[in-house]
Amino acid sequence: MAKKTKQGRKSGQQSGGTPATVALAASGVPFTVHAYEHDPAAASYGEEAAEALGVSPDQVFKTLLADVDGTLTVAVVPVSGSLDLKALAAAVGGKRAAMADPAAAERSTGYVLGGISPLGQRRRLRTVVDASAQGRATVCVSAGRRGLEVELAPDDLVALTDARIAPIARG
Q: Is the predicted pLDDT of residue 9 greater than 70, yes or no?
């Protein structure tokens, strides 16, 4: 069962916080941190998170990095689907997109694969959130490490990442 810890407006700054939780605390938006025991053998980090939190995979969003015409771009899509690279390229006015090199994704964001958060990244990257997030009261995204998710309002996620909203997921 997932351990749930309510975070206040400033409490993410305690020791052990990730750059994502520190950024959230500094922003003043309400959020909840959900910790669970990560299984290194899990086939999908996102599906593991949804199951551990007892929520629909449509509510948990994965953070993926793609190279769109030579520029790293963050895509935030539900774990129940996959990223449509053509739709992502179109959403940012690009022509061609491919998944980013994993090492480049880790270097650029400061996070490890499976724990990349759209929040608190080392460098602010162009970000697109799938349009399916809009109809939800809250969404869960990685809090910056495997086994740690943060739940917040989609509008807050979009505002904090300066994201565009577009239909970039399929399935």
A: no
